[in-house]
Write a structure and sequence with these properties.
By secondary structure, the chain is mostly beta strands. It has 2 helices and 30 strands. It has a 4-stranded antiparallel sheet, with no helix packed on it.
Length: 368
C-alpha cells in the first residue's frame, strides 16, 4: 500500500541565526518575522457537511484557527485574533463536533510563568461553520490554559486538562457551570470516553497512573498503575507531561492508547488492565489514532523528521508501516506528527508541529 504525501504550506518561517530564548511567547511577540510567519499544526477536524478541514494551529499573532479546502488548496482565516486575546496562541488538541455540527474548541498558551498572572486563562468557545460565528462560553480555570478537551455530547459535558498547572475540570454546557477538580499532577495529550461515558486520564507527577471519572455517580476512581512503560515515557512531550500521546474509543469496547514511546496499548475500561500491542516504527511519539472505514486502526507518529503512518489490524494483531511522511518535490519530511484525520475521499491529513527549522506543514497522505 504505497503512500504518496504532499505538504500544504500556510506560512513558512525559516529559522534565524539567533538561538532560542527561554520565553518563546515573548520571543514570538518581539520578532515580527517569527510572529507573523511561524505556525505549527496542532489539531485537525474534517467537516463532512462543507468538505472543509478545520485546523487549530500555533501562531504568535493569535490567528490560530483556519479552514483548508482540500479541493482547491485554499486557506481561510477564521478570525480568532479578533475574538480572543494575545495569550491565545494555539488550539492544542481541542477541536470537536457537537451533534448539530457546531464546533467546540479551547485555547492554549506558550507564555512563561513570569506572565502567568497577566493572562486571563484559556477559553472554551463554539464556532458555527455555516455562519462563521463565535461564542465564548467560559474561562474554566483562571490563569491556566486548556491543552485538550473531550466532549460528551449525550450528557452535554466537556472535560478539559490545563497547562501550565495540570488541572482536570468538567464544564456543564447547559448549566454553564465548571467543576474544578484541581491539580492532578499529570496530563494526557488527548483523552477519550469509554462506552459508559467515563473519562480516562492520568494522575501523579512521577507514576502517571490511570484514573477515570464516572459522570453517573460523579466520582473519580484513582488507579495505582500506569500504561505499560508509562514512567519511561514521561516528560517526552514536555516537562511533567505523562506518557499518553493519544487515546481513542475503538468502538469494540476497548480504548486504544498511543504512547509517547511510539507504542500501541489497549485498555480494558472494565478492569483498567492494559495490553501492550506493539511498536510499529523505531521513533518515539504516537499522537494520532483513528479507526478507518475498513476497520483498521490508522496512526501517525515519529519524531525529528521521522514522521510516518501505520495501520493495526485488530483481527490479526498485525502492524503495517505505511512509510515516511515525505514530500519529494519539497524534499522535506514531517518533523513531528501531532494529529490525524481523514476526508470523504479517504485522503488522510497529518498535522506537523514543533519544527525547529521552519513552520509546520499540513500533510496530505494518499494510499494507492
Amino acid at each position: 500500500m504505497p503512500m504518496k504525501c504532499k505538504a500544504h504550506i500556510l506560512r513558512d518561517w525559516k529559522r534565524e541565526a539567533a538561538g532560542a530564548q527561554s520565553d518563546e511567547f515573548g520571543r514570538g511577540k518581539m520578532d515580527e518575522y517569527r510572529r507573523r510567519n511561524y505556525v505549527a499544526f496542532t489539531c485537525l477536524l474534517y467537516n463532512h457537511v462543507d468538505g472543509m478541514l478545520y485546523c487549530g494551529i500555533t501562531a504568535y499573532d493569535a490567528d490560530i484557527f483556519y479552514k483548508f479546502d482540500p479541493r482547491t488548496g485554499e486557506w481561510t482565516s477564521l478570525g480568532w485574533a479578533e475574538v480572543g486575546e494575545q495569550y491565545d496562541v494555539k488550539i492544542h488538541r481541542s477541536l470537536t463536533f457537537d451533534t448539530d455540527g457546531t464546533i467546540y474548541g479551547a485555547t492554549a498558551c506558550l507564555h512563561d510563568v513570569s506572565r502567568r498572572l497577566d493572562a486571563p486563562g484559556g477559553k472554551i468557545f463554539t464556532f458555527d461553520p455555516a455562519t462563521n460565528r463565535y461564542d465564548v462560553l467560559s474561562t474554566p480555570v483562571k490563569y491556566d490554559y486548556i491543552q485538550t478537551i473531550t466532549m460528551d455530547t449525550q450528557r452535554r459535558l466537556i472535560y478539559g486538562l490545563t497547562y501550565p498547572v495540570f488541572k482536570f475540570f468538567k464544564y456543564d454546557i447547559e448549566a454553564d457551570e465548571v467543576t474544578d477538580y484541581d491539580f492532578i499532577g499529570s496530563i494526557t495529550h488527548i483523552s477519550a470516553l469509554d462506552d459508559r461515558g467515563r473519562f480516562w486520564g492520568t494522575w501523579h507527577w512521577t507514576k502517571h497512573c490511570l484514573f477515570c471519572y464516572d459522570p453517573e455517580v460523579d466520582e473519580i476512581t484513582w488507579f495505582n498503575h500506569s500504561i505499560p512503560n508509562g514512567p519511561q515515557g514521561r516528560d517526552i512531550m514536555y516537562p511533567g507531561a505523562g506518557p499518553v500521546d493519544c487515546m481513542i474509543n475503538g468502538g469494540d469496547g476497548y480504548l486504544y492508547i498511543g504512547s509517547t514511546l511510539g507504542e500501541l496499548i489497549r485498555l480494558n475500561p472494565d478492569t483498567a488492565a492494559c495490553d501492550y500491542l506493539g511498536k510499529p516504527f523505531d521513533s518515539r511519539r504516537m499522537p494520532g489514532l483513528m479507526v478507518g472505514r475498513d476497520g483498521l486502526i490508522y496512526g501517525c507518529g515519529g519524531d525529528s523528521y521521522a514522521g510516518q503512518m501505520f495501520t493495526y489490524d485488530r483481527e490479526t494483531n498485525a502492524f503495517t508501516n505505511l512509510g515516511a511522511i515525505y514530500d519529494p518535490e519539497l524534499d522535506t519530511s514531517c518533523y513531528r506528527t501531532h494529529d490525524l484525520t481523514v476526508d470523504d475521499e479517504n485522503v488522510f491529513y497529518v498535522a506537523e508541529t514543533d519544527n525547529p527549522d521552519r513552520s509546520g506543514y499540513l500533510w496530505e497522505c494518499r494510499m494507492d
